[in-house]
Give the backbone structure.
Amino acid sequence: MSDLIHGINPVAEALTSGSRKPLELILPQGRIAHRLDDLRQQAEQQGVKIKLAEKGELDRLAGHNRHQQVLLRLPAFFYADLNQLLGRWRQSGNSAFLLLLDGITDPHNLGALLRSAEIAGCHGVIVAKDRSCPVTPVVEKTAAGALSHLPLCQVTNLARTVEELKAAGIWCYGLAGDEGSQNLFATDLTGDLALIVGSEGKGLRPNVRKHCDGLLSIPMRGQVESLNASVAAGVALFEVVRQISFKNNPEIS
């Protein structure tokens, strides 16, 4: 199986992201515009097969969407399974550190979350199949190469997965600004841990929320009520990094 993307910018991002090796660049027959020629040269340098097609075929392949006369075929993105992700944690010899995403549908947010998770040292990221943005060239571009190093796991039921993680001894905390949530900065986050981030509009779904061991909130001093999901996750991820660093070396404040 393969994925087919279209449009000058998405194709350019896919050719430069490096996460999936392109299989085929499809261009129109005849003389092409300067930007398309740049893509052709880039594909040739990478050893990517180039196919020339008539406009009607380009339209058909793109599903009659606006394709800007260029399409790129990529291998289907490979999602890790949960056992692989847990095995990666156990082999590391370190405390578990996972990020779960519930309802992140914007590709820029997903890419930013993946990038932060990889830089923070997460063992992997878990998303739900039914409410999640798929991996696209925009996601890969925003992630800045994170998917080359960070397993991304897709599960059918996120609440059930939370229970599986808890059974493995991992504490699962959801980010939420609700009254009664624990202060992120006053909570011990140095053990086996999974952070769960919900969508920007509705936050965590009720069924996911009730399976969490606890809810964490980020203290805020301004008038705006909430942070962007990727920003909030970044704050929480690096609070975990800070606490672990301090535990391992108390002289570092």
